[in-house]
DNA sequence: CTGAAAGCGCTTACAG
DNA sequence: CTGAAAGCGCTTACAG
């Protein structure tokens, strides 16, 4: 009786949400649902005029596809999962933003997981996210549990690793050599004529360790390596911690004349602590940071640091993942984006 | 013929993924799929021994529910959408972490959207996320387009607003009064005997503006308001910008004796710039920040600031949203978590 | 407390 | 180039 309601078909038990469906768009355009589906997805093999009609119908009705239905039917989601060890480090925020910028135009939703530098948490996160049948995976570094590795492998989901370069050189990765960055840092300080060099790292994540390894290697080569000048702590990296460790180091080893910090926040804390205690940088002790955070160049004195291409890493890793998802050929699995030594006032 | 494969039913065209389904769990446990579903979801009305059998079957087979199928059948996802204006500000990272910590144990997936302080981008994000049929919405502040507002309203999805308090007092919100925080800042500086007070804010987001309003109000009341001492810029807040604006302000108004910054990064930049130019803080000019970022207490001199409860805001907003989702009564729509003036060396 | 049937809104696989 | 049928893997609504 009620006009306008008569075209409702198979809606017996009425579990419908009221939102516009593909069926309604198809009816509005006068085509079958499957044609509407193909037209909206931009599949070839649909007559151009039909595509137009369907598009207009969709616009007119304000149709937005139901991602759950799409995922269920096609057995694949529009999700891409990114796992990072921390959100407190600007480094990873920059990477995430870049990834987002690349994925968004492709209609891919970025699911962000933060595992807080915890291998078990990473495994749990991955297990959960895999149930979403993601199109791709973006993981940070290579330090993870064996079963996480198997999980990734068994899933068959394309995966790109960020930040580090795969020592085995078999996995798709975009980053730079952490070891060489550490070496470069040490060499720079040695060239400045420093003899008593220290390395201070927090978090004890693999990249911090690798940087330390490069650093050690360079010092051993120069014949001035002293293991007691390596200060590593599992505590989280922060400005406060940097100041604290700086104070302790100088108290225990007054002859230290250069310090390389595993992250800029630590180095910034050291600079502030030096300022507070009248320790002259770089005259008495040179300070070198890592990552070159935006604020580092404004420190007093301006912090020397190693600039890492985290934005480029996020972008390129995302592009690379897109290639893998779409089955495009990738020439080499490894993409080394390098790093840049920024010499300013503190070293 | 092949044993073990004979129980495959209605798998004619074989679109199955190979992953373990509810059907298999049910068969393994010797119950119907629907009973298995109910058992796994912890619905009452299932015999305890059946629940056990189903749970064991699920464990044995490594069953993980397909979120897409669940969402499609139940017409609701396990997603909660959070929209923040920025990820560059530690403030929002802390909020997000807290939200995550609350939602995770409830099996709710947090989808994060960053609208970069752009109202149109927020609207676009929301429109997209709404297609996911989220269980709840967590939005930042009250400054948005009219159609975004209508979108939220029309969706019927429970929503809690963070950071600000609703001027209309009708919406669910968890935060503190930005205006009162600005007033508190100004009063503190006035009590210190300062007369020529400036306000420096970046980003021009509503909260920065509201803080400025409170500040202005207090100054007018004290009879020392000077509009030329209000420096507002749409540029993004950063340490570098803080130093720059500090320098300009003192060049144009050498008699300024106190500055309130809309965010700590600006204030930190000012402190560093002062240090570099031999301007004594707080003797010549007092500096007060906002948010009390972790590094602020280590600045030289230690930065006074207004500590904002962003972790608590995230937590309480998430809890509140959980209440709304589960239809629990909420006593008052507004939750004022306040703020705390941290007086250190710079003021 | 348990289950057979139907349906959620899409896409795949098969025909024409 | 287009479509009717079936199915993705769950849950709702209805019976018993």
UniProtKB/TrEMBL annotation, chains A, B:
Pfam hit, one: LacI
Gene3D superfamilies tied to this protein: 3.40.50.2300, lambda repressor-like DNA-binding domains
Domain HTH lacI-type: 20-74
Record keywords, A-Z: DNA-binding, Transcription, Transcription regulation
Family matches, as InterPro entries: HTH_LacI, LacI/GalR-like_sensor, Lambda_DNA-bd_dom_sf, Peripla_BP_I
Organism superkingdom: Bacteria
Entry keyword Transcription regulation: yes
Protein known as: LacI family DNA-binding transcriptional regulator
Source organism per UniProt: Stenotrophomonas capsici
